TrEMBL record:
Source organism of this protein record: Chromohalobacter moromii
PROSITE patterns: GGDEF, PAC, PAS
Cofactor: Mg(2+)
First-tier enzyme category under EC: transferase
Protein name: Diguanylate cyclase
Length: 438
């Protein structure tokens, strides 16, 4: 409210004073010393704010300052504005009110000066901004909290992904670029299940759906396709958000870290424990385990399975004549030739010193015999160099096709009998085992 400078609050007529008292405005007028002297006017609601009367405040102006929090700092800001010649000064401070709570006030002060520029009166209008200040404080706290969480999300090495119920990406942290090569914005609105290997996607989708339906976190290891095409192993923890109103999950928060190196180490350790280092074939225990699993799988789909057992002819003579180093070269040569000649689904094992076996899924007895014959000719023609000498060797084969639900021991025995027959008939040949007697 603008008050004529000629009159000031000290000369207001009584009817104007009564009008001001009926107003909700919180007003005061004071001399240059602010509240410490010359309190010309104070509205009733301002006095009530600190639990006093107008008369008490006008007689003891310092009482007001006792309720102003950090009064010295507030006065310093006021006097700095007066010294700078400002005609309007805005102050913010807190008041300890009568009801025991602290209120935030905005004090707009009009400065009246005489012709020489000296301050003759300060007219203040206070506004209670407590609710606004509390809201601002909460907003600042929220913004500060958001900054902290954003700092964590943007700098943590693990990738953080937010997916909706359809599996589409709604947020990806910057670390996803180092993990999968994709910039975060390129993954937005993209189905993340599309980055999984095709044979893994249904299983992972089912696991996530089941975990979300029960509102339970899910930890799993999976592979995702890198932008460059290769797959990266990830250890992933998925946490579903269940809407309490609809009782349906709406979001999936996934935190993933790269475990590719660990998986490679595990794979290498598994290879060392299951693979013969000299020939690259499975060791006897691992091969027999695969053979049992292969026969069980074949029972479910009515698939043919054939077995080949072979060993190196006169291998003891090679070791006795040239030494074990020469024998190792021959074994390594057998392993290399077999690995290059076999299909991915064929299982190659070393089941004895110089004895090997092949499990051929989906192959008939005739198919197995043809493969064995190709290998026999290859072994017969190969030469192994050892200290300037060229060593040759031959291999004998026994072949058997599995009969209806025949067990591992029986199938191995029949193939072994075929090998025995090949040895007995002159070696360096393929012999088909007779069928099992009914």
């Amino acid at each position: 409210m603008d008050i004529p400078a000629a009159k000031g609050f000290s000369t207001l007529p009584s009817d104007c004073d009564a009008l001001l008292e009926g107003s909700p405005a919180i007003l005061y007028a004071t001399g240059p010393g602010w509240w410490r002297n010359d309190l010309h006017y104070v509205s009733h609601n301002l006095a009530t704010l600190i639990g006093a009367t107008r008369a008490q405040l006008q007689s003891t102006p310092d009482w007001w300052l006792e309720h102003v929090c950090d009064a010295q700092e507030v006065e310093a800001r006021l006097f700095a504005g007066l010294a700078a010649g400002e005609s309007r000064i805005r102050l913010y401070y807190r008041i300890a009110c009568a009801e025991g709570r602290v209120r935030y006030m905005q004090d707009d002060i009009a400065v009246q000066r005489d012709a020489t520029g000296d301050v003759i009166e300060l007219i203040g209008s206070l506004a209670d901004i407590s609710e606004t200040q509390v809201a601002l404080t909460r907003l600042e706290a929220l913004a500060d909290s958001e900054r902290r969480y954003r700092f964590i999300v943007e700098n943590v090495s693990d990738a953080i992904l937010l997916m909706d119920a359809d599996g589409e990406c709604r947020f990806a942290s910057p670390s996803i670029q180092g993990l999968l090569g994709h910039r975060p914005e390129t993954l937005h609105d993209r189905g993340l299940l599309g980055l999984l290997p095709p044979d893994d996607a249904p299983r992972v989708q089912r696991l996530i759906h089941d975990a979300a339906r029960h509102g339970e976190p899910l930890r799993m290891e999976l592979r995702m396709r890198h932008r460059l095409g290769h797959y990266v192993w990830l250890e992933t923890c998925c946490s579903p958000y269940l809407n309490p109103a609809s009782e349906r999950y709406e979001w999936i928060l996934a935190v993933a870290r790269d475990i590719t190196d660990r998986k490679h180490r595990e794979h290498r350790l598994h290879e060392l424990s299951t693979t013969d280092s000299l020939t690259g074939a499975l060791n006897r225990g691992a091969y027999l385990s695969c053979l049992r699993s292969g026969l069980e799988a074949a029972d479910h789909v009515s698939q043919r399975v054939s077995l080949v057992i072979f060993d190196i002819d006169h291998f003891k003579t090679v070791n006795d004549t040239w030494g074990h180093a020469a024998g190792d070269l021959v074994l390594a040569c057998v392993g290399e030739i077999c690995r290059t000649a076999l299909r991915d689904q064929d299982v190659f094992g070393r089941i004895g010193g110089e004895e090997f076996s092949l499990m051929l899924a989906g192959q008939s007895l005739n198919d197995a015999a043809l493969l064995a014959e190709r290998l026999r000719k290859k072994f017969e023609s190969v030469r192994v160099e050892f200290h300037g000498e060229w060593l040759s060797f031959s291999v004998s084969f026994g072949v058997a096709e599995r009969q209806s639900r025949e067990g591992v021991e029986s199938l191995l025995h029949r193939a072994d009998m075929g090998l025995y027959a090949a040895k007995h008939n002159g070696r360096n040949r393929v012999h088909q085992a007779p069928p099992q007697p009914i």
